[in-house]
Amino acid sequence: MYSFKCSFxxxxxxxxxxxTTATHAAPIIYGETTKLxxxxxxxxxxxxxxxxxxxxxxxxxxxxxTHSDPVxxxxxxxxxxxxxxxxxxxxxxxxxxxxKAAGNxxxxxxxxxxxxxxxxxxxxDTDTLITTNSLPDAPQLRFITQPFxxxxxxxxxxxxxxxxxNMSLYIVTDTEALVPEPASFMLLSLISLxxxxxxxxxxxxxxx
Length: 208
Hints:
208 residues, alpha+beta, Jelly Rolls, 7-stranded antiparallel sheet, 4-stranded antiparallel sheet, 2 helices, globular
């Protein structure tokens, strides 16, 4: 009987502990979402890497791009970690996606990413115009040659430096956490602790 009551109390305690309130922060966008002034031609079978700084640990949900003209292009997008100023390991990649003119927002498998520098990658199956600018603070891009049919590599090695451009590439992140309600902890204290004390008292009395 004592064992059954203890099991009940433990189950009740765990149930109360999991009473939570979903606190859903607004999505945060990193990168360039707007249509920029210049058009830059990106060759097919060329992976372009654009650096992006993520300010807080989160998870990525979408990768986006902006083009100025109608396009009949397929693309693969990805996000890479950073190693000594170059893209390193693939974090997540999109499926092959037919692009539209103007905005493209492609969902990816929600994946945890840490704070710090990462690299947005894009690979096209045909030559494609993407909007850019070359302001003084524009970052230096990196690139590798890669057949479109092979997809994005899992690890980048031997990348080369490209020009200094801002490209219309961005990621959408979404920090979502389940935060336990203070009321849950209060209820846990009011119910579980007296029950445990009562059971301990009965158990000690039965052995006296």
